[in-house]
From TrEMBL:
Residue intervals of the Gfo/Idh/MocA-like oxidoreductase N-terminal domain: 4-122
Gene Ontology MF, one: oxidoreductase activity
Domain of life: Bacteria
Coiled-coil segments on the chain, per record: none
Protein name: Gfo/Idh/MocA family oxidoreductase
Keywords, comma-separated and alphabetical: Oxidoreductase
Lineage per the UniProt record: Bacteria, Bacillati, Bacillota, Bacilli, Bacillales
Annotated organism of origin: Metabacillus sediminilitoris
InterPro entries: Gfo/Idh/MocA-like_OxRdtase_N, Gfo/Idh/MocA_domain, GFO_IDH_MocA-like_dom, NAD(P)-bd_dom_sf
Domain GFO/IDH/MocA-like oxidoreductase: 133-251
Entry keyword Secreted: no
Family: Belongs to the Gfo/Idh/MocA family.
Length: 331
């Protein structure tokens, strides 16, 4: 397969730490250009990461006819503009989560991708890890009995970085947007259905432009099953997932961001005791890039279509409304 030529729109930390190395280590892709709002920053990042071409504007990168696909790690409020512009330029798009500020914006973006005939995906790298196929297989097998609930956490403490884009309300800041989306998307994926209602309580911080710095919530699914979750940017680090059944449970210690010290293993608890399911360490970002690469080159369907991002944003909209108005919101 001829490698996909990727361009990166922006020099965000997630791009430099994880996504660019992931694409570079993938089987199907190579990063050939990066753009920033200033040429100096783009050149510096290009040199650090061995990227051949640097551009001093996003427009220049989109005008490069050799670029086939772009990754967009910009602040949330810029996703819609640059994803649509990239699609209209004929580029395939991988856009950082959450896809947009709300479901209406996400729908516009997906429609722009469909109209342009490009592959369009939201960047939830953890979903491409094969361990989640194993977890779904265990649930389906009945080993842990009937499903009773899912609990997810994703918290970290970066509260002293007052200039962080996550702490700007108009830019789509807040913990629900940044990390709450992970347990929400995970529950939807494992249950293969959409929640009916959301109830969320949050800490809105005056020091951080009134964004939600911590949020705890419940999503109501069918048959009395619920996702309970908490997410935060002003709390100790955790990123876990527990799937509870009538006869056992599954615990994933590093559910979203992989802890290389503990590998990617997870644990199954039943009446027979604890079973560790060993999973080889695999670069989730490379798997994500390869899924897009095979879709671009071979027409393979994406494991998670762009329309899934719209559904996830509908849930996120309900969570934010519930938190701000202190009430249960039907979805």
């Amino acid at each position: 397969m001829k490698k996909i030529r990727w361009g990166i729109i922006g020099c965000a930390g997630i791009a430099k730490r994880s996504v660019i190395p992931g694409i570079q280590q993938s089987e199907t892709g190579e990063v050939t250009a990066i753009a920033s709002r200033g040429l100096e920053k783009a050149m510096q990042t290009a040199q650090q990461l061995n990227i051949p071409t640097a551009y001093g504007s996003y427009e220049e990168l989109l005008a490069d006819p050799t670029i086939e696909a772009v990754y967009i790690p910009l602040p949330n409020h810029l996703h819609k503009e640059w994803a649509i512009r990239a699609a209209e330029a004929g580029k395939h798009v991988l856009c950082e989560k959450p896809l947009a500020i709300n479901a209406d914006e996400a729908q516009e973006m997906v429609e722009a991708g469909e109209k342009a005939g490009v592959v369009f995906a939201e960047a939830f790298m953890y979903r491409y890890h094969p361990r989640y196929n194993s977890i779904r297989d265990i649930i389906k097998s009945g080993e842990i009995g009937e499903l009773r609930g899912i609990h997810g956490t994703f918290t970290f403490n970066n509260s002293m970085d007052m200039n962080n884009v996550r702490y700007k309300q108009e830019w789509g800041g807040g913990s629900l947007y940044d990390v709450g989306v992970y347990p929400i998307s995970a529950a939807r994926m494992l249950l293969n259905e959409e929640p009916q209602a959301a109830t969320v309580h949050a800490l809105f911080s005056e020091e951080h432009d009134h964004v939600d710095m911590m949020a705890s919530g419940i999503l109501e699914f069918n048959r009395g099953v619920a996702l309970t979750f908490d997410c935060g940017m002003w709390a100790d680090f955790r990123n876990t997932l527990e799937v509870l059944g009538t006869e056992g449970r599954i615990e994933v210690p590093s559910a979203f961001v992989v802890n290389q010290d503990e590998r990617d293993n997870f644990f199954v608890y039943t009446k027979d005791g604890r079973r560790e399911v060993k999973v080889p360490h695999i670069n989730q970002y490379s798997l994500q890039a390869d899924a897009l690469g095979r879709s671009i080159r071979n027409g393979d369907p994406l494991p998670f279509p762009a329309t899934d991002a719209v559904l996830n944003m509908k849930v996120l909209d309900a969570c934010l409304l519930s938190a701000r108005e202190r009430r249960r919101v039907e979805i």
